[in-house]
Amino acid sequence: MHKISWGNKLVLKNLANFITFTRVIFAPILAIYFFSSFNEGNNIILVLIFVLASVTDFLDGFVARRLNQVSLLGKFLDPVADKVLVITALLLILYNDTRLLIFIPVFLIIFRELMVSALREWSAILNSMNSLNVNFLGKLKTTVQLVSIAFLLYKGTLLDFDVYAIGILGIYIAAFLSVISMVKYLVNFFNEIR
Question: What span, in angstroms and rounded, lies between the C-alpha atoms of 109 and 114?
Fold first, then answer.
């Protein structure tokens, strides 16, 4: 395993960390493209930017395990990169569609992400991170969330399917899974620190 450092050298030496860091970079690229060219003709490019960024979420972990590059920086940076990308995309979707129908799941997901981040900080202070390890429910939530966001960013029809409507259904499922996983994290955390 590489020596732990917070400098740029570690990010460049560790391919997994570099892949994770690119996800952070994709968030402003997504926002810039959204505001510069968001229309029916360019939605596919917007979705491709998001999908490419999302793939890095699965790729960085695979590379870290495969190349034995699991690091403390990677464990810190991965959830931060996830939240930056997801919250950016959700706010863009909400900017484009301000209906309560969209606001509710977006609010629930962002609230969950902030709560889990706060729990991680608290756990770090208490040296009690086991209760916040990613579980199957968290991974399922992430997958449903990323696919739903891609559909919502596309905002059109594909092969006669209303992709946006499918995205709305998916984002509600993701919001439900977000709340359930947050409750599970809270219960595990408080049981562990008792």
Answer: 9
51 in a structural domain: yes
Q: In angstroms, rounded to a whole number, what is the distance separating the alpha carbons of residues 168 and 79?
A: 24
User: 141 exposed, middle or buried (CB, 10 Å; 0-12, 13-18, 19+)?
Assistant: buried
Q: What is the DSSP string of 124-149?
A: HHHT--GGGS--HHHHHHHHHHHHHH
Token digits of residue 172: 């509600």
Please report, for the domain that includes residue 33, its CATH number: 1.20.120.1760
Per-residue tokens: 152: 């919502």
pLDDT tens for 92-151 read: 999 999 999 999 999 999 999 999 888 888 877 777 655 566 678 888 999 999 999 999
Q: How many residues does the chain have?
A: 194
Collapse the DSSP code of 162 into the 3-class scheme (helix H, G, I; strand E, B; otherwise coil) and give the result. Answer: strand
Beta bridge partners of 157: 162
Please give the model's pTM, rounded to 2 decimal places.
0.86
Strand partners, 158: 161
The total number of structural domains in the chain stands at 1
